Amino acid sequence: MKVPVGFFQVLWSFVSFLPYFFLLFTLGLLKGAIIGPVVMGIIVISNSAVIIGLWPAHFIWTFYCVLRTKRLGPVLKMVMVVALPVPLILWPIVGIVGSLLGGIGYGFFAPLFATFEAVGENVADKCYHCFVDGCLSTIRGSWTAVQDFTDFCFHSYFSYMDELSEKVPEDEKLVDIRLSKLPSCFLVSLIGVPVDVSLITAVALWKSPYMLYQGWKRLLEDLVGREGPFLETVCVPFAGLAILLWPLAVVGAVIAAVISSFFLGLYAGVIVHQEDSLLMGLAYIVSVVSLFDEYVNDLLYLSEGSCLPRPRYHRNMNPNRVKKKLGDSDNEDLKIRRESSLETKLSSERSRTLKWAIQRYKPVQVWDWLFKSCEVNGRILLRDGLIDIKDIEECIVKGNCKKLSIKLPAWSIVQCLLTSAKSNSSGLVISDDLELTKSNSPREKMFEWFIGPLLIMKEQIKQLQLDDKEETCLRELIMRGKNENPEDWDESRFLSSDNVRKAQLQAIIRRLQGIVASMSRVPTFRRRFRNLVKMLYIEALQTGALANHIGEIPKSRYNTDSLVRSGDKEGRDETVNVLSADKEKHDIADMV
């Protein structure tokens, strides 16, 4: 589009924009005021019921698993038993207050953003969507948040506790601390918390005007010149909204810095234990403020480094080396990220709407890819007989979902590794337009923990050079065979007779299944996995896989609530009602 040039054209563009913006903003505020209390009530009441209802079980089971575990040494157990009552008692308060703040924020801002998204270029009836968008979708989103929170409190928590209390190999070293180090660790932590909280808060408050000024300056430049993410006309309202809400982002950043400073101060006790030196812990208290200052300078595109002192807090630490504590990058990587950020800044986002920006967020893309890959491979495995109706039935009725929740994602990831290895890619090819490498992979710790081992396993698979027959055999071994011990493949039909080759593949598969098992504890995994199971069940019905089996299933074994809920956001809202055999054809027709 034509960008306004000249003072009067720019002035007229700004003046004509104001009524348009204020009408949308007022409508968004009204929708937020109406929908916000409803969403807040849903989230607060539901989450509070989950927290209070499960709190006695969480309290008792946590102590039981800590006392029973063989992974922790006696001294560490004693310390945890003494310290655990504090977080366990604070958990209901923190959970309820967090639900209240989250409900208020989501219930108010989601309708507001949806109002501005309704004027996007791909929306047909803009006037209608300005009034409707963000109402029912926000209420449905609140129930989704409650569902994910319930999954975390019920499934994820007990899964972590079960892993803590399970048997460990005899050669595994216990995690323990020395009793003689505890006094110095506690002393340094007690010093570090008030010192780091006060100093980091001071740095955050000192830098906040720079963040406010630079954000407003960039947003105003883009608004007036129609540059960056506001190049199109439909994006101009978002410029005004971003300018108006930018101070809230600055306040949120300061609050996050204050909260994180508490844990950074506590970490000084860990440094004392690692280095067995009180002085090293005190040095860390000073250094972490400098590290935080440098990290903030990097985010705000200010001068590199920090003028604050940074003493060594590790004996083998290079004093000239930029520590990876806060930025998670070494000197070279930090420089690359800074140059890339300076080149693109806000214009690189191209985020016409908030929803579009979220969809383009790499962790979301990786998560979406995993489940889409499981969906495609699930259909193929169902067609080839490696997944049958008994597996789906056991998962729905009995909750035995290991084959679908562990082995199916593991095979999907193995396929990605095989494809990436064959294409000689330096990273992971997860789609036609997205390749994850070390330079563009998500910086979040969880995804670094997920992608890093996959890159190593891809290189290992590349060196093995599997042929098509071995890949087919490997698929069957993953889906049907056991892989708990090295001897499980001794009687398998794997084509290679090289025991070293078999052992390498077994180690890769075992590690992959362990990664997937850990991923299954993420709350969104459970919700999306349920959608995947429903899809596979629908696919089995539509392909006639249940033709001879459905009459044998008693009607009482299934109910509509366990199998049917509203579909996902991509449009799958089919309804499945498993009735008696005489209505089988009618049910299948309804589902199609």
Automatic annotation (TrEMBL):
The chain crosses the membrane at residues 6-30, 42-64, 84-109, 185-206, 238-266, 278-296. One of its GO terms (biological process) is vegetative to reproductive phase transition of meristem. It comes from the Eukaryota. The keyword Transmembrane applies. InterPro entries: At3g27390-like (IPR040229). This is Steroid nuclear receptor ligand-binding. Coiled coil: none annotated.
